Amino acid sequence: MPKKDHYVIIGNGPAGNKAADVLRENDRNARITILSDEHFSFYYRHKLCDFMSGVIDEDTLKVKFYKEYKEKNIRLRLGQRVEKIDPDSKTLFLKHMEKLRYTKLILAVGSAPRVLPSLLRYKDYFTFMSNYIDAANVKSMLENIKNPIVIGGDLIGINFIKMLSRLKKKATFFMYYKSFWPFDLDIKKADAIRLSLEKNNIKTISGDPVKTISRRDADYIIETESGREIEGDALFSFMGRIPNIQFIKGSGIDTERGILVNEYLQANYKDIYACGDCAQIYNLELKDYWISIGWENSILQGEVAAYNLLGEHRIIKPMSKKIFNVEGIKVKTSWWNQLKT
Q1: Which pLDDT score, from 0 to 100, does residue 182 have?
Q2: Which residue, 187, 221, 234, is CA-closest to 207?
Q3: Which residue of 62, 100, 191, 324 shows the fewest CB atoms closer than 10 Å?
Q4: Model confidence over 202-225: pLDDT tens digits?
Q5: Where are the alpha helices (H) located in 239-331, listed in sequence order?
Q6: Which residues lie below 8 Å from residue 120, measured CB to CB, with a gap of 6+?
Q7: How many Å separate Cα 22 from the centre of its chain?
Q8: Can you tell me the distance from the alpha carbon of 178 to that of 180, in angstroms, rounded to the nearest whole number?
Q9: Which residues, 6 or more positions from 229, have their beta carbon under 8 angstroms from its beta carbon?
């Protein structure tokens, strides 16, 4: 009897879940395992602000419940952090040094919050809103917050700052054009966003970056380059996202800003594929790599990665659909030459 394949997917977001569904539909006998370092089932990350503000509850936030994985005979292992990969022996080393063997691997590990280099020394002061646990913590804070400070911007941050406005918080927004990375947002578009926020009574500061951050009792004190002092009772950071690939480095899997894969989403090991925010994909026409983020892109890439892992040769192409339309400012999900700037 031939051995059953063991498909392992690291990441429980839209790319990883779509890949798992495609694999199960086309291989009824294989073992399929999804690993996630989060403790919460697959959820709509872009609806976290609705969850925090009470528009939706925890169950509505979820895309899938545990029973759906069980029905498809897909093993979901939450709270399982992968520490290291050995592609030669096809072994994953989990926290507490548990070893997990795979025959084929899909990396759909997503992205992590980015902090601007000039503000790294203040990282411990920041509250991030990156995942369900972050959102649950912020939800518990919101009632007592009166004058929060938001630094950065990015598209998730824009949604967050508008939520604060709806909740009648007196927020101050330090807008950094470069914090929209990986998007190359020009000054004209950034100014349009700034003006729109100011119309919603959101105090917006641009062109006067943070010089220092300190604490005074329970408050945060920001001194700007021009000498202004801004005080707030909470400090949030939204400075874009970077592929979550630290644990991969040193494994022999090629990485740059993301996991380097070809037009089939295959890494430099034949049985390893990457998809979603973490994948840096080679484009045949541009002869360069690109990364494409957003829910729809991740689903498409998860589907293509799974079919190619099963033996097909589908070429992934960047989608042109936007993921956000911020007050009429359309931002595409794909970017190209900005990767090396």
Answers
A1: 55
A2: 187
A3: 191
A4: 899 988 999 999 999 999 999 999
A5: 295-309
A6: none
A7: 22
A8: 5
A9: 221, 222, 223
